[in-house]
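Open question from group meeting: does this chain pack into something compact, or does most of it stay loose? Before anyone orders reagents, we agreed to write out a predicted structure and look at it together. Recording both the input and the output here so the notebook holds the full record.
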Amino acid sequence: MRLTKYEKNTRWRKKNKAFGLCPRCGKKPETGGVHCIFCREKKRKLDRAYWSRRKRNAKDKGVCWKCGNLYIGNMSLCEICNTEWNRYQVARYVERAVGVYMEEEFLATLAHIGSKEKVDVMAKRYDDGQPLFHPEDSRVWEKLVK
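Structure tokens returned:
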């Protein structure tokens, strides 16, 4: 039994992926991803064009671009998808904001403002690419008397 063109391409892509090659062109990915840089950019452009077209067509029809239900007012999502999207955005924000402060190296310091210890902590944070100020850092000024 002969394989169809689709079946041949599917096997070729699976074989390339199993050997760590780009499934689209067969080249070795340079960044450790599945696709090579050229194919990744090409796929990204195609995906953006697809979603842009899908959103535009949905807006013309007056339906949600995610699920196809009718939406009310000037929104591009129905009420259910909009609520889901808002929950996702809040969770993503909290994960990013809290994640920065939960790292072991970025802990609050009790060193007083203006002290050598505080300056050393801020210099280390700067070198590590972390925010200079932690919300729970000490806010007490040290009187430097010599």
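Observations to bring back to the group:
The chain has two domains: 5-104, 105-146.
The two ends are 93 Å apart (CA to CA).
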